[in-house]
Amino acid sequence: MQRNERSQPAAGTDSETNQNRRTLISWLLGGGVAASLASFFYPVARFLDPPQVTEAAVNEVAAGKVQDLKPNSGKIVRFGNKPALLVRVNDTEWKAFSAVCTHLNCTVQYQEARKEIWCACHNGTYDLDGRVASGPPPKALEELAVKVRGDEVVISRRV
Ligand code: FES
After folding, report:
1. Ligand 1 centroid distance, CA of 18 (Å)
2. Residues 69, 100: one domain?
3. Are residues 89 and 145 in the same domain?
C-alpha cells in the first residue's frame, strides 16, 4: 500500500505539471509562428519601402582618350548615375552636356550629319551650346565643363 502511494503523485500536482507543459508548448509554438510571420513579412516590408540610398555626388569623370573620339563626333559617358554626352566639335574644341533630355528624360545623342544634339523620343533638337533648337524640350541641356589633360578628356560640373 505504501508503495502505490509513493509512485502516484498527488492529483493537484499532476494537473499543475500538465498545465505548465501546455503553457511552455504554447509559448514555443506561438514564438515559432511569430518568427515565421516576421521572417516572411520583414522582407516584404523592406521591398515595399526600401531605404534611401544616397548617391555620392560626382563632380568629375574621365571620359576617355583624346584619340578615341574623332572630330565631329560624340559619345555617351557615365557621369555619376546619369548619362553625359561628350562631343568633339573639331580638333581642339570639346563640349559636354547632361545627356538627359529636358522634355521627358530620354537620352540624347549627337547627330554628326546635322551637327546637332537630337532626342529620338519626340524629335527634339539642341544646338552645340545646349540650347533648344526645335521640338518639345522646355529648356536647354545642362552644360558640363571639358578639360583635356595630356591625352585624357575629363568632364566636370561647371561651378
Ligand atoms: S524626351 Fe526628348 S524630346 Fe521628348
Report:
1. 75
2. yes
3. yes
Domain boundaries, position 41 = 2-48
For 89-141, the pLDDT digits (tens) are 999 999 999 999 999 999 999 999 999 999 999 999 999 999 999 999 999 99
Closest ligand 1 atom, CA of 123?
3
Distance from the CA of 148 to the center of ligand 1, in angstroms? 30
**Which residue has a Cα nearest atom 1 of ligand 1?**
104
For a mutational test of ligand 1's pocket, the pick from 117, 119, 139, i.e. the residue with the most ligand atoms closer than 8 A to its C-beta, is 119
CA of 43 to the centre of ligand 1 (A): 37
Long-range contacts of residues 85-91, Cβ cutoff 8 Å, at least 24 apart: 85/109, 85/110, 85/117, 85/141, 86/146, 86/153, 86/155, 87/117, 87/128, 89/128
Inside any domain, residue 26: yes
Quick check: is 54 in a domain?
no
The whole-angstrom distance between residue 75's C-alpha and the CA centroid of its chain comes to: 22
Predicted structure pTM score: 0.68
Does the residue 55 lie in any domain?
no
